[in-house]
Design goal:
With about 200 residues, this protein is an all-alpha fold. It has helices at about 5-10, 15-30, 35-65, 70-100, 105-120, 125-135, 140-165, 170-195. It is globular, with a radius of gyration of 20 Å.
Length: about 200
Amino acid sequence: AAPARPQAERGRGGDAGRVSRRTDRARAQLEQVEGGEQAIVAYFKERVYATFTGLAIVLVVSSSEHPEADHAFWALILGVVGITAAGFVSDVISHLSVHRTFPGRVDLLISTRIAGGALGTLLTPGILLLLALLDVMPLDAALQASAIVYIATLAVIGWFAVRRSDLAWWKQVIALAILVALGLLVVGLQTLAHSI
């Protein structure tokens, strides 16, 4: 016979319980990554940076009068790779300044995994823009779908952060609304910076 589920888990609805268990499993897997909680924080931070950068680039290219697929593709790739490389270099410099030595193999492995997470934000939008570059789909549709992917990514990360907090439900709603407002402000500032 299957072991009894904890009381808190039995009280949840079917779908909510499954989502919560998946979230708990994902967190447990992340906690197994070398570097512990600090590595998880850095992973999400870099992923958010890369997502905001990608979204800003997609929005700027979309708003230009005559966007071209090759420009959109390379602007996105180089922009996200650039912000990821900057994050990796900043990790090395920070480690050197604090520990007075270059990062060791484990630290470099953690930084590489973090950079890989940031580069992972390129996957779907990069494929969409590549399809536009190859004339498989219209550029406007690829840019719009890429923007939706980035917005959804930010929403999931924000939801994950708020959901895992110890705040009451109504404070979680307020926190999520504040994160959305701040996210819109960041997107606005980055879009303005890229369009000048």
